Amino acid sequence: MGLFDRLSRVVRANLNDLVSKAEDPEKVLEQTIIDMNEDLIQLKQAVARSMADRNRTEQQYKQNLSESNKWEQRAKLALSKGEESLAREALVRKKTFTETATTMKGQLDMQNSQVDTLRRNLVALESKISEAKTKKNMLIARAKAAKATEEVNKTLGNMDVGSSMAAFERMENKVLDMEARSQAMGELAGTGVENQWAALESGSDVEDELAMLKAQFSGSGTGQQISGSSMDQKSLPPQGTSKDSVVDDELEQLRKQLDNL
């Protein structure tokens, strides 16, 4: 294969590719229907011409057949009148018209067959056009749906959905961290308050117990009141006693007080 042949093939391939890409299904189908309708018009015209030719041939056939019959009758009339020469002349005329009628009959048969064929083709083309129109509407609808789907997919492809969802996930995690910190701070604040209440309640219990002990001490024994001065005198150790004896006396007093409780 020569260089120019290869270049020509490459050019044709590129042109065909450009044409294929530039083809709009709706426009191509519309033009196809237009072309088919034009073919239908031409076929109808061909059928009309064929029928007209057939009709003329049929008319000529009938005329020649009629003339043949007429000269046959004249030949008979001439013979009946004894005019043999006239009868002979009439038969010659009859033969001419008969041969012409026979030729016309063959042509007429051929034209009838042609007209029938054209009519069948006409009906078939009309059926194809009707089918093509239905199919055209369906293909155009499918093409529009495919184009719409392609545009939607293209739009979705241009969307950075993954990045958007990642941003949502980050913000969700941040909100969860904020809620966790807020809950922890609330728990810590609640713990401080609880500790304060526990301290107050604990202090109150100690004070109440201390008051009860004081009341018990004040009401213990045989009904004698332990005044501040008597306690001071009893708590003072006698002169001349040792430190250990003072301690022992104080412990003994505490035991007696506890026994009287």
Secondary structure elements and their pairing?
Layout: H1 3-22, H2 25-80, H3 84-158, H4 161-218, H5 228-235, H6 243-259
Helix pairs in contact: 2-3
Provide a descriptive summary of the structure in words.
This protein is an all-alpha fold and 261 residues long. The protein has 2 domains: 152 residues; 38 residues. It is 90% helix and 0% strand. It has 6 helices and no strands. Helix 2 packs antiparallel against helix 3. The longest helix has 75 residues. The protein is rod-shaped and about 205 Å long. Keywords: Coiled coil. Belongs to the PspA/Vipp/IM30 family. This is Phage shock protein A, PspA.
Integer-rounded radius of gyration: 67 Å
| Uncertain stretches of 5 or more adjacent residues | 221-237
Helix content: over 70%
Give the N-terminus to C-terminus distance in angstroms: 133 Å
**Series of secondary-structure elements, N-terminal to C-terminal:** HHHHHH
Strand residues, percent: under 5%
List keywords for this structure.
6 helices
Task: Summarize the entry for a quick read.
The protein has two domains: 9-160; 170-207. Helix content is 90%, strand content 0%.
